[in-house]
Amino acid sequence: MSGTAFLQTAPLMGPLQRYLDPVDRFGEAIFGLIMALGVTGAVQLGMEEATSWQLFLSILGCNIAWGIVDGVMYVMLALFERGRAARITMAIRGASDAEAIEAIRRELDPTIQQITSTAERHEIYRTLLDGVRRSEVRPVRVRADDIFGGLTVAVLLTLLTVPVALPFAMLDQPHIAARASNAIALAMLFLVGLRWGTLTGGQPWRAGLGMVGVGLLLVAITIALGG
Fold it and tell me: Rounded CA gap, 28 and 157, in Å?
């Protein structure tokens, strides 16, 4: 099953759409596949005499562990961004109008400078300042959505990397299984890269080939080191 097909699996689409926007979904997919290539090579190098089944279990276990790590990072980053927003809000509330608008300008200018005039931005910042001073600052804590979002990331990465590990469960010769695994990962990277290029407004074929290039570099390094 291709990378894009996994991202469209019915039971997973609800949580994916709720917790991750399209760019984040495909960004996580690219990370997961590149990570799977790296893990596959690393496990092979460390278990030269292992059977294909032992390699399958090791690679799958590493991929699941990385999925959990990335899920935890999702929760931590959500908490960090919420804390950062709260700190900025408190700083703006305690500042003069001029200082507060300058702080807002530093945050937002890089994002909206290309599509607004100076006068329009000033009006936007003034409106935001009024809203910030009326808003309630809530305690910064982990929310249920953070937990479910982290779980979604972990499950997504695990599902995407299962096809990469499967050749080790199906083929008795580890080196042949490794090449089949590499081919599957590269094909999935190409498909996900195509979609990534479309979503980000770039050139899909270049994005797909670029992802394959990164994957091939990892494979070449692994082979050069004896994997």
Answer: 7
